[in-house]
Each structure stands twice: as structure tokens, then as C-alpha cells.
């Protein structure tokens, strides 16, 4: 403006040199600004961090580190405030509140290392607390023999600490509880079956118990007792079901032995007492002889199985025990005649005709 062109040229040359010098120092200035910003973040100095990253962006508007750093710097005060509250909650053992606050910090700034480390620490403490509570519930339920509650509590503990020795020991104790309860249930069922004289059921309950524990005392003793009583029950039922077998002497001997074994049972139940009375009645009836009148034609040769040859007769009276009998008549020139009949135990006289009448 003063037309001092020579001086103006000198000043402009100085400005050009200064700009060139500034352009040459730009990388160093940018690195310095980024370094100051990072350090300010670490020191918790939000204004200094904002200033440093803003300067860095002035030097390089597309710089990713500066953009990210500035975003962190703008939330730093909020992060620090939340961190103070979270630490206070942790010191007061309010772990749930501390976890929530540290988690919020992680959302705002995932790179804030004190909060990252604290969140991990608090979550471990919470998991320990929950694990200990689950094991306490398990042990309490175990003491009270509440199998379902104990199983649920142990399942939670397993989820939290699957490799814990306490979990392994808990599984062993739970198996033992289940075994004890199963045996107690089977023993109750066995007792009820014995009271109702259901010996097959009693035997089945003993077999089931021995599968659970081969040394179960009640099952070892009960299986032997139930086996004896089951065999006796079946024998008595068979006698009552087939009373006509009592006409055979060998069968009578066997039945008397079975009846003696039944009478030897201490404190027989109603069913056994009924069976003993029924067999007693059958034995009395089997020993009672019934009069049977046979009528023939004095020409037919008569034979009665298990009694013998009766020969020829017009009328013959026999005294027979109740049961089934077979009688055969034969006569030369005539077809043999075979009759099967039953001698009833009611004591009434019975009549039977046996004669050969069909000419061959």
C-alpha cells in the first residue's frame, strides 16, 4: 500500500518460508496432538483431551484416531462420574448396582480399562455369591431330604461352576439321597404288600431294591420270606382249586405237609387263615367215605380203576372217598362199557349202573 515493493517482497518471502516450515512440521504436530489427547484421556482430563484431539483434527480432518479420541473425550466426565458411583457401590458390597454401572460405562466407552477390569471382577464376585447360595440351598434341601429342590439347586451350581469339586461331591450326595429315598419307598411298598399278603408284589419290590443296592438288608431278608410265602400261597391255592386230587394217597400226604407248614407261620394274615381253614375242610371231606351203589346184570365183569376188580354182581355197595373214578364193564360178545363219575363230598348216597348191552 505504501508502494514499498521491495520490502513487501521480502515480507512475503518470509511468509512463504514460514508456511513451508509449518507444512513440513505438520506430521510432528499431529503426532504430538494425538499423544497429548491419549495421555489426557488416561489422566481423566476431559478439557485437555478435547483440545488436543480438536487440534489434531485441524491438522488432519480425516484422522480416525482423532475422531475416535474426541468422541471418548466428550463422554469422559460422565464415565468418570459413573465410575466413582460404581466403585462406591462395590465397596458397599452392592454388587448388582456396581455391575449395572460398570456395564453402562462399557457401553459409553468400551476402552475405559478401569471399568472393563472392574466389571470382570464384580461379575466373578456375583457368580461366586450365586454359586455359594445355590450350594447352600442344595445342602439345606439335602438335609431335609427334598430331592427335587436339591436337584434344582445343584443344577444351578453346575451351570455356574461345572468343574468345582463341591459340585462333584454334591452329585455324589444327591445320588446317595435318591438311593436312600428309593429304598425307603420300596421298603414301604414291601411292608404294605406283606400286610395285604400280596407275596408276588412283595417279591418284586425286593428284587427292585436289590437292583438299587445289592446289600439292602430288608430286601435280602424279605426276598427269602416272600419266596417262601409265595410258594406256600401257590400250593394252597392249587389245593383249593383242585380238591379232587385229594383222593390220591400221595397227594393227601403232600397236602398234610403243606398244611403243617402253613400252620407253622407266625401271625398268619386273614388270607392265609382262610386258606388253612379251606384246606382243613377239604381234608375232612376227602376223608369222609360216601356210599356208592353199583347195579349190574350179574354177567358183566366190572373193574374200577384204583379200586380193583369187582367181578360180576347184580348190586354192590362201595364206600369211596370223594373224587373222580373210572369204571369199566366187559362181557364176551358185547362191546365194553366205560363210565366216569364223580363221588361228591356232600355225603349223599349215589347210584350207578354198569352193564354191557351192545352185542358185537
What does this entry look like structurally?
- The chain has 360 residues and is α+β, with helices and mostly antiparallel strands.
- It has helices spanning 5-24, 26-43, 46-59, 64-91, 95-108, 113-143, 147-160, 165-195, 199-212, 217-241, 249-263, 270-287; strands at residues 290-295, 301-304, 308-311, 315-320, 323-330, 337-343, 350-353.
- It has a 4-stranded antiparallel beta sheet, with no helix packed on it. A 3-stranded mixed beta sheet has the order 4-1-7, with no helix packed on it.
- Helix 2 (26-43) runs antiparallel to helix 3, helix 5 packs antiparallel against helix 6 and helix 10 (217-241) packs antiparallel against helix 11 (249-263).
- It starts with a helix and ends in a 7-residue tail after the last strand.
- The mean pLDDT is 90.
Number of helical elements:
12
In terms of per-residue confidence, which ranges show pLDDT below 50 for 5 or more consecutive residues?
none
Characterize the largest beta sheet: strand count, sense, and whether it forms a barrel.
4 strands, antiparallel
Strand order of the largest sheet: 3-2-5-6
Tally of DSSP β-strands: 7
Structural class: alpha+beta
What is the CA–CA distance across the termini?
A: 173 Å
Computed over alpha carbons, the radius of gyration is 54 Å
Order of helices and strands: HHHHHHHHHHHHEEEEEEE
Strand content: 5-15%
Mean pLDDT: 90
What share of residues is helical?
A: 55-70%
Shape: rod-shaped
Amino acid at each position: 500500500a505504501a508502494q514499498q515493493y521491495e520490502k513487501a517482497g521480502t515480507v512475503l518471502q518470509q511468509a512463504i518460508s514460514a508456511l513451508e516450515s509449518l507444512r513440513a512440521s505438520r506430521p510432528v504436530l499431529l503426532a504430538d496432538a494425538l499423544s497429548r489427547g491419549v495421555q489426557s484421556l488416561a489422566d481423566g482430563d476431559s478439557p485437555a483431551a478435547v483440545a488436543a484431539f480438536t487440534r489434531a483434527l485441524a491438522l488432519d480432518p480425516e484422522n480416525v484416531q482423532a475422531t475416535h479420541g474426541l468422541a471418548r473425550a466428550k463422554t469422559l466426565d460422565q464415565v468418570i462420574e459413573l465410575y466413582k458411583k460404581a466403585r462406591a457401590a462395590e465397596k458397599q458390597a452392592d454388587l448388582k448396582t456396581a455391575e449395572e454401572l460398570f456395564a453402562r460405562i462399557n457401553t459409553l466407552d468400551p476402552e475405559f480399562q478401569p471399568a472393563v477390569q472392574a466389571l470382570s471382577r464384580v461379575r466373578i464376585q456375583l457368580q461366586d455369591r450365586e454359586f455359594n447360595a445355590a450350594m447352600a440351598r442344595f445342602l439345606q434341601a439335602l438335609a431335609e431330604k427334598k430331592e427335587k429342590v436339591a436337584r434344582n439347586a445343584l443344577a444351578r451350581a453346575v451351570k455356574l461352576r461345572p468343574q468345582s469339586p463341591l459340585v462333584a461331591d454334591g452329585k455324589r450326595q444327591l445320588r446317595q439321597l435318591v438311593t436312600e429315598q428309593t429304598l425307603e419307598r420300596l421298603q414301604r411298598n414291601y411292608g404294605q404288600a406283606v400286610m395285604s399278603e400280596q407275596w408276588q408284589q412283595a417279591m418284586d419290590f425286593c428284587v427292585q431294591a436289590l437292583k438299587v443296592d445289592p446289600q439292602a438288608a430288608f430286601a435280602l431278608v424279605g426276598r427269602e420270606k416272600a419266596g417262601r410265602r409265595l410258594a406256600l400261597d401257590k400250593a394252597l391255592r392249587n389245593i383249593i382249586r383242585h380238591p379232587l386230587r385229594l383222593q390220591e394217597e400221595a397227594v393227601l400226604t403232600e397236602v398234610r405237609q403243606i398244611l403243617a407248614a402253613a400252620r407253622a407261620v407266625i401271625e398268619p394274615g386273614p388270607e392265609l387263615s382262610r386258606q388253612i381253614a379251606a384246606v382243613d375242610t377239604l381234608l375232612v371231606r376227602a376223608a369222609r367215605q360216601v356210599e356208592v351203589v353199583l347195579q349190574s346184570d350179574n354177567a358183566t365183569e366190572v373193574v374200577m380203576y384204583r379200586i380193583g376188580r369187582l367181578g360180576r354182581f347184580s348190586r354192590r355197595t362201595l364206600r369211596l372217598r370223594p373224587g373222580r373214578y373210572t369204571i369199566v364193564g366187559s362181557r364176551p360178545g358185547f362191546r365194553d362199557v366205560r363210565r366216569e363219575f364223580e363221588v361228591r363230598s356232600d355225603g349223599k348216597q349215589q347210584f350207578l349202573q354198569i352193564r354191557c348191552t351192545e352185542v358185537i
